[in-house]
Design brief:
Layout: H1 2-8, H2 15-32, H3 48-62, H4 66-69, H5 76-92, H6 99-107, E1 113-116, H7 122-129, E2 144-147, E3 150-152, E4 162-165, E5 168-175, E6 181-184, E7 209-213, H8 225-237, E8 243-247, H9 256-268, E9 274-278, H10 282-292, E10 298-300, H11 303-307
Parallel strand pairs: 1-4, 2-6, 8-9, 9-10
Antiparallel strand pairs: 2-3, 5-6, 5-7
Length: 312
């Protein structure tokens, strides 16, 4: 998909970014073989998880310690790959807000908790439009919020619904110089490209925005203290629920942290909750039943069928 987006949009005109993409490909092709141009992105045996794991291990174990001393948590190649992922998702999600996500948001009640492992802003925007989400819904300590290109104080008013994005988000950035956590409220205001920016806290031209996105590594490293605390807050919120709705998540074995979170939830449930499972994946349904210690779920093959069902 990234290759198609590059070749069919104006992305090639961004010469600085394309030079970074070229450097990324030439780095990875050494380990995987194949073409050292955009054709490499269509290589059949490529896995985003494998490539990100390779770049992360290479940075943490085999690179010089200079970058780490400067406060960087990732290599420039990892930055480029995350930015390419972000640009690809942004393009794939262009158009009007998703009506199905908006319907989900409309049906949410005060005190509901949403856990998302996606970087995109489909649920975020739906919640904001339905007046179910505020800046505080993320439970992250943002220093400033960018609205229409201007830095503002985050809205401290309590959100009706909590949205825990446990792998980060496209609109969260970190200043690598002073460590400020910053929020770009809507998708259209996300930083594009790996470019210098003026941090609203330290005002340094040398600082660089680092996307707060936990890569889908086989062994995730939560070095960002805010992300670590986010998991702690999520765990504290997961007490006893009468109903759980799972949409499109497969509970893969690689997500050991999420599976552990579900087992901790199970230990706090005085009674088995009612579970709506929305996915065509029957194996994923069985994995969730095992994790939560339940005998059955209400199965729905897709989101449309779920939204047309009676809602309590």
């Amino acid at each position: 998909m990234a290759r198609l987006v590059i070749e069919n949009t104006g992305m090639k005109s961004d010469l600085v970014f394309m030079s970074e993409v070229d450097r990324l490909i030439k780095t990875i092709v050494q380990y995987y073989g194949g073409h050292d141009d955009l054709r490499f992105l269509s290589k059949e045996d490529l896995s985003l998880e494998d490539v990100m794991t390779l770049l992360d291990v290479d940075f943490r174990l085999f690179s010089s310690p200079t970058s780490q001393r400067l406060g960087m948590n990732e290599s420039s190649q990892m930055r480029t790959l995350k930015d390419l992922l972000s640009r690809t998702l942004e393009y794939a999600l262009t158009g009007p807000p998703c009506a199905k996500h908006r319907e989900l948001a409309d049906r949410m009640n005060d005190g509901d908790v949403v856990i998302s492992l996606n970087y995109d802003l489909l649920m975020d925007n739906a919640m904001f439009e339905a007046d179910k989400g505020k800046d505080s819904c993320y439970h992250m300590n943002f220093n400033k919020v960018n609205i229409d290109g201007n830095w503002k104080e985050p809205v401290s008013r309590k959100s009706k619904v909590s949205l825990f994005k446990l792998h980060g988000s496209l609109n969260w950035v970190r200043c690598t110089l002073c460590g400020s956590l910053l929020l770009y409220r809507f998708r259209k205001q996300i930083l594009t490209g790996w470019i210098p920016f003026n941090c609203p806290r330290c005002s340094s031209d040398e600082s660089v925005a680092e996307r707060v996105m936990v890569p889908p590594l086989q062994s995730k490293d939560y070095r960002d203290k805010d992300m670590t605390f986010l998991w702690i807050q999520t765990d504290r919120m997961l007490k006893a629920f009468k109903k759980i709705v799972c949409i499109g998540y497969s509970f893969p074995s690689a997500d050991s942290d999420m599976r552990a979170l579900m087992r901790r939830l199970r230990s706090r449930q005085p009674h088995p909750p009612e579970v709506d499972f929305v996915s065509p994946d029957s194996d994923a349904n069985e994995r969730m039943k095992t994790l939560l210690g339940i005998k059955r779920t209400n199965r729905f093959p897709n989101l449309s069928d779920y939204l047309s069902s009676p809602w309590e």
